[in-house]
Specification:
The structure holds 2 protein chains of 2 kinds. By secondary structure, chain A is α/β, with parallel strands linked by helices. Chain A is built from 14 helices and 18 strands. In chain A, strand 9, helix 4 and strand 10 form a beta-alpha-beta unit. In chain A, helix 4 crosses helix 6. The longest helix of chain A is centred in the middle third of the chain and has 17 residues. Chain B is α/β, with parallel strands linked by helices. Chain B is built from 11 helices and 9 strands. A 5-stranded parallel beta sheet of chain B has the order 7-6-5-8-9. Chain B has a 4-stranded parallel beta sheet with strand order 2-1-3-4. The chains are: A alpha/beta, B alpha/beta. Chains A and B meet through helix 5 of A and helix 4 of B.
């Protein structure tokens, strides 16, 4: 597989010691260290100490910190190519690094669309030259995301596409989807769907008491469930590997659980927003909370959290979608969907750890080992031989999300002005430090 | 009775019925009563708003609401300017916020805004220093319509409390319905909604109303029958199959009206589609107060403008 984008490892040996290591992918949850050399992990666990790291090793004392695999965000929209004023691969990668994300899976919803091997190549080259984290694209299922003609899955895969998806468009035509799944199966290509029946999803927020009160057209949960159930029938027919990019409601969770019980090759994701926010957060028409799929009820949110806890939902994504004031500071029904989130994903997810709803190892797994397994990446694990992609976090460090401090070129964060508990303080990609949180500067800013 | 110059509204703007207390509503209606009297005199003009600038900013075409606000402002002595901004959801053109910032630089005191998108008036209100009146935003609220309906009912029936009010027709797309449901519930009336399921919003049963899909059932014993306009683009298969089917089951004719109380009042926010949601004979009949609603509209808007101006700097209560 042309999976992992190649990043040159940094020569030299470093030992991160006295850390709390967490990696559910390798059953790791305890005191220890990580030894890296030439951009790869060569030692993991209790035996990694200052004494036996070797005389030439640089020692980094991580006392009090949590050391985990660098996170993999399976759903990141950028504006490159085509809308660089919203976000470039470079700006998104700095946001990712600040959030502990060492691999961004970027969506094909660009201009031009990533539906051709040459554009996959362009993305990989631009990423190599400008981004500080790994970048791997998903290519389009259909040419131009139009939902009509399937793309060259084989050539796209050879060029380095890790999956196919129409991003935030659903492949609505059942005939096309059936063919795409059958063809993808031949190449072992993962098909990722935005599960939403477009003819039912004509509204702008969850169909609920809130939408009725606000006078906004609603998107019923049925629009998601219908598409999911239809696709699973097609998966049954074709045997293709299928991933629902994001589910948003309790009923979808039931459908996924049934499909997994019958042994279908399916997985699904949920955005961090849907795990910590609900449709009441829209309040008085706050467009930063206008998302696709829409934020649902508190009952749905609780069900999704439970689904992450029991692994019915495999992965957590940021669904990072940069939008500018010109697309967001509009009346709610006219504003674009989407919120940025790659930088705040881990901190927001920690809410579920602090509340006791989901254990921290499971949360980390949903953002590292799980997406690595689904996409066939060699990153996302703390084990000897794996690339030295690491994130070091302080789970109890309070910080306030302020637009001017966010690295993303767009500032449409639903967590603006929110104090989050815990954050990534250092990020390492292939042995290279790509982010370090400046506590003193942050403290000075707070008191200023 | 509220004396001249005392505060009536707590807020700077009137963006919706939501957020108003029953006391505020009662005080506004009392003040409006006095303006009904003033408007019936030969000398209809007062100097309450002298020196104030009122801009009617309409992003969506309107004849009666705009002229009603214009007349209200002029009777109170304000300088009134009408601005029609041609825009639609399709061709956006200048944004709401750009317009707000531009207008704010002209130092208006009162800004009357209608927009086709729910929440757009509130968005605009965040960016201006003057008082903003929502003259209808999308499918969200139309507070002055609900107030003028309440005034009409109160003057005829002497109260709102305990009355059975049936709101019939396109509830789904109606800001008038949303504002009326809130106001009537706050004032102790019992609200019934009558519509086919395709014209009812999601979770309508949680709105503190009784819901009927059968108009004859829903009208039984009603004190007030409030009809809503069904827009042309929603007929012919989109939401209801045809005009003739809609009229047959949900059009108000004398036969259906006879299910309501004998002294029930018939209301309509206008403009009416005669022969679609209402029969001409009923619209012009003895039970109809539709023309009276128009008169009350001016009085209620005078009261709203007066009340908001009192909260402005230099208005006596700021």
């Amino acid at each position: 597989m042309g999976a992992d984008p190649r990043i040159m490892g940094v020569p030299g040996r470093r030992a991160y010691i006295n850390a709390h290591l967490i990696d559910a992918g390798t059953d790791l949850d305890g005191h220890g260290g990580i030894l890296i050399d030439d951009g790869r992990i060569i030692g993991v666990g209790n035996q990694v100490t200052a004494a036996n790291a070797g005389s030439q090793a640089t020692i980094v004392d991580c006392t009090g910190a949590t050391l985990m695999p660098g996170l993999i965000d399976m759903r990141v929209f950028t504006g490159e190519p085509g809308n660089e004023h919203r976000e470039t691969l470079a700006t998104a990668s700095h946001a990712a690094a600040a959030g502990g994300v060492t691999t961004m899976i970027v969506m094909p919803n660009t201009d031009p669309v990533i539906d051709d091997a040459a554009i996959v190549d362009f993305i990989l080259r631009r990423a190599r030259d400008t981004a500080v984290v790994r970048v791997a694209p998903m290519a389009a299922i259909t040419k131009g995301l139009k939902g009509q003609l399937i793309t060259e899955f084989g050539l796209l895969q050879e060029a380095g596409a890790v999956a196919v998806t129409d991003g935030n468009h659903a492949v609505a035509d059942a005939g096309i989807m059936s063919r795409a799944l059958a063809y993808a199966h031949d190449f072992g290509m993962l098909v990722v769907q935005h599960v939403e029946e477009p003819t039912l999803a004509t509204g702008v927020m969850n169909a609920s008491e809130v939408s009725t009160r606000l006078g906004l057209p609603g998107i019923p949960a049925a629009s998601e469930v219908i598409m999911l159930e239809r696709d699973l029938r097609l998966v049954e027919l074709t045997g293709a590997r299928y991933h629902a990019a994001q589910i948003s409601c309790r009923e979808s969770l039931d459908v996924i659980r049934r499909a997994k019980d019958t042994g279908l090759p399916v997985s699904c994701g949920v955005s961090i927003n849907h795990l910590v926010l609900n449709d009441n957060d829209i309040g008085a028409y706050r467009t930063f909370f206008k998302l696709s799929p829409p934020l649902r009820s508190e009952e749905d949110r609780r069900a999704l959290v439970e689904g992450v806890g029991d692994s019915s939902i495999d992965v957590i994504v940021s669904s990072h979608d940069p939008q500018n004031p010109d697309t967001k500071r509009l009346p709610f029904s006219e504003a674009e969907f989407g919120a940025i989130g790659v930088e705040t994903m881990f901190s927001a997810a920690l809410r579920l750890h602090h509340s006791g709803d989901v254990p921290l190892p499971r949360l980390i797994e949903a953002m590292s080992a799980a997406p690595a397994r689904i996409l066939g990446l060699e990153t996302g694990r703390l084990q000897p031989g794996a690339p030295a992609d690491l994130a070091i976090a302080d789970p109890s460090l309070n910080w306030k999300v302020e637009a001017e401090n966010l690295k993303s070129a767009s500032k449409n964060s639903p967590f603006e002005h929110t104090v989050l508990e815990g954050r990534v303080v250092e990020t390492i990609v292939a042995g290279r430090q790509v982010y370090s949180y400046d506590r003193r500067r942050a403290a000075a800013k707070r008191t200023a | 009775m509220t004396g001249r110059g005392t505060a009536i509204l707590k807020g700077q703007h009137l963006l919706g019925i939501e957020g108003l207390s029953s006391d505020e509503i009662n005080d506004l209606l009392d003040l409006a009563d006095s303006y009904v009297e003033l408007s019936r005199q030969i000398e209809k003009k007062q100097a309450t708003l002298r020196g104030r600038t009122q801009i009617n900013l309409f992003f969506e075409a309107s004849t009666r609401t705009q002229s009603s606000f214009e007349l209200a402002g002029k009777r109170l002595g304000a300088d009134v300017m009408n601005m029609a901004v041609r825009t639609s959801a399709v061709s956006k053109g200048e944004t709401v916020l750009d317009t707000a910032i531009t207008l704010n630089a002209m130092h208006p005191d009162l800004l009357i805004v209608r927009h086709h998108a729910s929440g757009a008036v509130e968005l605009l209100a965040q960016k201006v220093g003057c008082a903003v009146v929502n003259a209808g935003d999308g499918q969200h609220e139309h507070p002055t319509q609900a107030l003028l309906d309440a005034l009409t009912i109160r003057r005829r029936k002497g109260r709102l409390d305990g009355l059975i009010v049936a709101i019939c027709g396109d509830i789904l797309h109606s800001r008038v319905a949303r504002s009326n449901i809130q106001l009537l519930n706050k004032m102790g009336a019992r609200v019934r909604l009558i519509a086919p399921s395709t014209l009812l919003p999601f979770a309508v049963d949680r709105l503190d109303c009784e819901v009927y899909r059968d108009m004859r059932e829903g009208l039984k014993g009603a004190d007030i029958v409030m009809m809503l306009r069904l827009q042309l683009e929603r007929m012919n298969g989109a939401f209801v199959p045809s005009v003739r089917e809609y009229y047959r089951f949900f059009g108000l004719d004398q036969e259906k009206l006879d299910r309501a109380k004998p002294d029930a009042l018939v209301m309509h926010p206008g403009p009416m589609n005669r022969g679609v949601e209402i029969d001409s004979a009923v619209a012009d009949g003895v039970q109809s107060v539709i023309r009276e609603q128009v008169e009350m509209g001016v009085a209620v808007r005078m009261a709203v403008l007066d009340a908001l101006a009192r909260n402005l700097p230099g208005g006596g209560n700021a």
